[in-house]
Design goal:
Blueprint: E1 6-11, E2 17-22, H1 25-40, E3 66-70, H2 76-84, E4 89-91, H3 113-118, E5 128-132, H4 142-149, E6 154-159, H5 162-176, H6 184-189, H7 191-195, H8 212-215, H9 218-229, E7 234-238, H10 239-244, H11 246-257, E8 274-276, H12 279-286, H13 290-299, H14 303-316, E9 318-320, H15 328-337, H16 339-349
Parallel strand pairs: 3-5, 3-6, 4-5, 6-7
Antiparallel strand pairs: 1-2, 8-9
C-alpha cells in the first residue's frame, strides 16, 4: 500500500486496476468546482473586452522605460531575474503581462490598464523601470503599442538558434497545457491546418503560439522595433553569448541601460526544462475561475498560507528534467529551412550566425 495521504483502491475482476489518489481536501474541493465550471462552460477569466490600444491609459507614477520583448525560450526569464537584483533597476512585479500584444489577446495576463499600472507602483528612485513579455516580439502590434506608450523606450531582444528554440518552445507549451501534440514533427506538420483553425487545442489561448517556425523567424519581428525605435535604442543579445559569457553580456547590457556597471548578480540556471505530473491539477492551480479564487480567499483568508499552499502543490506537481533529444533528422531539416532566415537576421544585426547552420548536437 502507498504511504502518507495516498490510498490504494483495488478492483477485482477480469482486469485489476490500481488507482492511486492523492487526498487533500483543498485539491478535492478545487476539483469539484473546476469540473462544475467546465460543465457549465462559463469562463470568468477575461478581465476586459478592450485591448491595450483601445483604452486610455491615465498613468500614475513613472512609466517603464525599457522592455524585454522576446523571444520565448531565449533566456529572458534569467535576464529578468538578474536585472531585478540590480539596485538601480525596477522590474515589473509580474513577467509576461503581454499588455501590448493586442493581436494576441489570449496571451495577455493583464489587459486592464489600471492593473498594468499597478505592476510598477513600487518604483522609487531607480534609474530604470523595465517590463518583460516574450510574445511582444512575435506580435504584429506590440511594437507600435509600446512606441505609442513610450516612444523613448529602450528595447531588449534575446534570440536563439531556431533549431534549439523550436524544440524548447514545443516542450514549454506542452508543459503549460497549450499544446496537445507531443511529437514535434507532427506539431510542425499541423502548422498550416492550425492557421486555418483546425487541430487547435481548446486549451491554447493563442493559436499563433503554435506556429513554431514563425516564432523563430526573427528578422521581420526585429525589424518592426528597429524601424520604430531606431538601432541605438534596440539591444540584441544572442542566447549563445549569454550562456558562454554571462558576465560580459550582462555588462554590455548595463551600459546600454545606463546603470551601474559594477553590479553583478549571482548567475545561475533559471527556467530549466520542466514536466508536469497531473495535467488537471496544473490547470486548476494555473487558471482557476475568478469565483473560485474568491471562494478560496474566503475559506483561506491568510494570504501567506494560501500562496504557500499553492506553491507547495505546484512544486509537488512538477519535475525538472532534461528535455528528450530531438530527432536528428528533424533538426537537419529545420537547419536547412532556416538557412535564408538566418542569413537575413545576420545581415540585419551585423553578426556572423554561421554557427547556427552547423550540424552540432541539439537536445
Amino acid at each position: 500500500m502507498p504511504q502518507g495521504s495516498s490510498v490504494g483502491f483495488y478492483l477485482m475482476g477480469a482486469t485489476r486496476v490500481r488507482l492511486l489518489v492523492s487526498l487533500e481536501w483543498v485539491i478535492l474541493a478545487f476539483w469539484g468546482l473546476w469540473r462544475l465550471i467546465r460543465i457549465v462552460g462559463e469562463d470568468f477569466r477575461v478581465e476586459s473586452s478592450l485591448s491595450a490600444p483601445d483604452q486610455v491609459i491615465n498613468w500614475v507614477g513613472r512609466r517603464p522605460d525599457f522592455f524585454i520583448v522576446g523571444a520565448p525560450k531565449c533566456g529572458t526569464t534569467a535576464l529578468d531575474v538578474f536585472l531585478n537584483q540590480h539596485p538601480e533597476i525596477f522590474m515589473s512585479r509580474r513577467k509576461e503581462s503581454h499588455f501590448f500584444a493586442s493581436d494576441m489577446p489570449g496571451t495577455a495576463h493583464i489587459r486592464d490598464p489600471n492593473r498594468f499600472n499597478e505592476l510598477f507602483s513600487g518604483v522609487c528612485n531607480e534609474k530604470r523601470v523595465g517590463e518583460a513579455s516574450v510574445w511582444h516580439l512575435a506580435s504584429t502590434e506590440a511594437a507600435v503599442n509600446i512606441h505609442r506608450f513610450n516612444p523613448d523606450a529602450l528595447i531588449i531582444v534575446m534570440l536563439r538558434n531556431p533549431v534549439e528554440m523550436i524544440p524548447s518552445l514545443h516542450s514549454q507549451l506542452i508543459f503549460e497545457g497549450y499544446e496537445d501534440v507531443r511529437d514535434l514533427r507532427r506539431a510542425l506538420r499541423l502548422e498550416a491546418a492550425r492557421r486555418e483553425g483546425l487541430h487547435v487545442p481548446t486549451t491554447a489561448p493563442v493559436p499563433a503560439q503554435l506556429q513554431y517556425r514563425n516564432a523563430a523567424t526573427y528578422a521581420p519581428q526585429l525589424r518592426r522595433y528597429l524601424d520604430l525605435f531606431g538601432r541605438d535604442r534596440v539591444h540584441v543579445i544572442l542566447y549563445d553569448d549569454f550562456a558562454k559569457d554571462p558576465d560580459r553580456v550582462f555588462c554590455k547590457l548595463l551600459a546600454f541601460l545606463g546603470v551601474d556597471l559594477g553590479f553583478r548578480p549571482e548567475f545561475s540556471r533559471v527556467n530549466a526544462n520542466k514536466v508536469v505530473g497531473s495535467l488537471f491539477l496544473r490547470d486548476l492551480l494555473k487558471n482557476p475561475p475568478n469565483w473560485v479564487r474568491r471562494m478560496v480567499r474566503y475559506a483561506l483568508p491568510g494570504q501567506r498560507f494560501r500562496h504557500g499552499l499553492i506553491r507547495r502543490l505546484e512544486k509537488i506537481n512538477v519535475k525538472v528534467m532534461p528535455r528528450n533529444a530531438t530527432d536528428a533528422d528533424l533538426i537537419e531539416e529545420l537547419r536547412k529551412e532556416f538557412l535564408e532566415a538566418n542569413r537575413e537576421l545576420s545581415s540585419l544585426i551585423g553578426r556572423d550566425l554561421s554557427s547556427w547552420n552547423h550540424s552540432d548536437t541539439v537536445g
